[in-house]
Description:
Layout: H1 5-27, H2 30-37, H3 41-47, H4 51-66, H5 80-97, H6 100-112, H7 116-142, H8 151-171, H9 175-193
Amino acid sequence: MKMAKVDRKFQILDGAMEIFVQKGYSNTTINDIAGRVSLSKGAIYHHFSSKKEIFMSLIAHWETLTFPDFYDKKIVNRGAIKTLEHFADSIVDVYNKRKYVFLAESEFLSLANQDKDFKKELEKLYEKLLNLFDLVINKGIRLGEFKENDSENTSLLLLSGFQTINWMSLFRSEPKQIKFYINNFIAVIIDNIKVENK
């Protein structure tokens, strides 16, 4: 059975992310990626014109892997507190299955200092995430789950807290510690903004 084009791209990006985490952008070659995913260089070039295009595409791939159902229509009917708790559980689940996804963000930040195109794409991603968090916080305010608060600032705290998992991936990789940190982090944020008795 022939693999669908979109699945092949996913396969290439997933393999490329693992290689980039191990070797860094500069030391990674198309041959490395091809070898990792058991494809020819020609097959890689059929989908991507260059190593840089692959790396640029990894930003959206990273978002899809890190926040697998953040855009799922099911969350529309979920309250803001449940959405944040579910989001924390999803992050822990991704960490347990694909730790390299979080290590990849360190590579992204490093390359953003050297490449303006990459920096621009990364800025767009962070703005998008901040906007999504802001929507959840404001939904909680509308539903009476959260007190009136500076939703922009709260969104920044959420993003900063979740980014700590990148540091923990490098230095404290015990899954129980990650789960404990993420669950407690979300609980502290929720406790600080929720309406009493919610």
